[in-house]
Amino acid sequence: MSVPMRVLVTGGAGYIGSHACDALLSAGHSVVILDNLSRGHRAAVDILSRRAAGRLAFVKGDMGDPAALEQAFVGGVDAVMHFAAFANVGESSAQPALYYQNNTGAMTALLAAIRKHRVSRIVYSSSCSVYGQPPEELIPLSEDAPLAPLSPYGRTKLIGEQMLQDVVAALKLEGVPTALTALRYFNVAGCEPRGELGEDHNPELHLLPVVLRAAMSEQPSMKLFGTDYPTPDGTCVRDYVHACDIADAHVRALDRIAPGETAILNLGLGRGISNREIIDAAQRVTGRAIEVEPAPRRPGDPARLFADTARAKALLGWSPRFTQLEQIVETAWKWFVANPRGYRASTT
Description:
The protein has 348 residues and is α/β, with parallel strands linked by helices. It has a domain at 6-195 and 239-270 and 306-321: Rossmann fold (3-Layer(aba) Sandwich), CATH 3.40.50.720. Helix content is 39%, strand content 18%. The chain has helices at residues 15-26, 42-52, 66-73, 89-94, 96-105, 107-116, 152-173, 207-216, 243-256, 275-286, 310-316, 325-338, and strands at 6-10, 30-35, 56-60, 79-82, 121-127, 179-185, 187-189, 221-225, 237-238, 240-242, 262-267, 273-274, 291-295, 304-305. Strands 3-2-1-4-5-6-11 form a seven-stranded parallel β-sheet, sandwiched between helices. Helix 7 links the parallel strand 5 and strand 6. It starts with 5 loop residues before the first strand and ends in a 10-residue tail after the last helix.
């Protein structure tokens, strides 16, 4: 086990952030969650607190609020994991100012706190959205692929990487060699196998939760956007990686990336899974037939997009544990069955 650290996790009450907090606690670290609960869930914090044996603190506040940040840094912080970004591509196009304000504007206060407190380890939740719509010949995508985000969301994630690189350069001038890891992950799916931490967005736009919500209804049906792509079954092909595997990579980055080094890494299964395969797997796991209504393609959706993960495997010693689609679907279904109304049912 690594040397125990005290880790500040912004957005730790959200879907991926809460799974990362659980992985940190399981690895023996202590956690401070900073979350304004606008899109995270207090119920997730409560679940983590019960597991933490006194190693978790929660600060309800915004990462753009210097006072909340100072409260979060009380007692010292060895590392920062940053998840507190809005992550809806469509919403970002409709409300770009909201995304620039939260994902980059508010982030300036976090960067100031990182510099003030001379943080030596940073792990940043980035996204494959920074690549935009790459040409087919570049897939599987490596980290060296051109960066051409198509949405305000993708642009804010790329700007966030650059902002962190700048603050790390400033810390280096001050004699603080900081390890920075930016993890560009692809489609995250699944929930922890225990069935307590889950995925609860409003609105829910991710394919697997949409499919499973449909399976739970009395008349299961859903729209499938795009059925005429140049792929084997006509639907989009994406790289689905389990939330627990994403969390594991974040924890590994704390140990494996040395002070003074910057690593930008893709995370994914490294192979493509089609939308139709997701639906078929969900029907097998749930035992329910889902009526699929073909719908037009969504603008900007490439036919295929999946990752080259060789660099993450080499630098982090990381490989996904959930490698079968049914495994991923089963963990998500377990949570949805136990929490048919999401976290809202357990929120007081």
